[in-house]
Amino acid sequence: ARDWEAALRFGLDRVAPPGARARRLPDLDVRFAFYGSIWRPDERQPLPAIEFGPAAPELALPGLGDLSLWVDQHLGLADSLLDLLLHDVDDYYAEPDLRKLTNERLIDAVRSGLPPGERAVVVAFSMGTLVAYDALRGDPALPVGALVTCGSPLAMPSIHRRVEATGPRRASVR
After folding, report:
1. Is residue 144's pLDDT more than 90?
2. Are 168 and 141 contacting, i.e. CB atoms less than 8 angstroms apart?
3. Distance of alpha carbon 131 from alpha carbon 138, whole angstroms
4. 10 Å Cβ neighbour count for 51?
5. 73-110 pLDDT per residue, tens
6. Beta bridge partners of 149
7. What sign for the dihedral angle of Cα 163, 169, 75, 64?
8. pTM of the entire predicted model
9. Which of 63, 103, 145, 146 has a Cα-to-Cα distance from 122 of 20 to 30 A?
10. CA 4 to CA 102: how far, in whole Å?
11. Is 146 left (phi over 0), alpha (psi -120 to 50) or beta?
12. Among 78, 61, 60, CA closest to 69
């Protein structure tokens, strides 16, 4: 977790306004619900080295997210693409033991050492957004005040159908 925290601080420092880099970031209580050891046998590999250098503009195609959403909504190709490209999603929803162990990592990270009365903010990326949303739906009593998603496929109709078909009803979501 220390490697990830260092990478997080490095990223926050890189996007800070000019002059703010000299300020020390406040101590953060950062926990990671890493489930790579469940999914991948090579999870113990070291993180890539962080090389300091000038910030470069992101290369992205404007509207690509809108295009993929349109293709999913109107052509119905996303289910086939998901089966082909995103095996993790299929594995997660099709294998109950894998799903349970993965969700337990998140639940343990949220509850571990959290002071009484405090609520966590869960920040999740990509596949982690599916895991976080699923764990929160499965246990609405978790002390979580917010779920922040980044790069989430949750809005895709094909993903939404899988989520709805495999979890508790929406009434349990706060």
Report:
1. yes
2. no
3. 10
4. 5
5. 676 666 666 666 567 787 888 889 999 999 999 999 99
6. 124
7. negative
8. 0.67
9. 63
10. 19
11. beta
12. 78
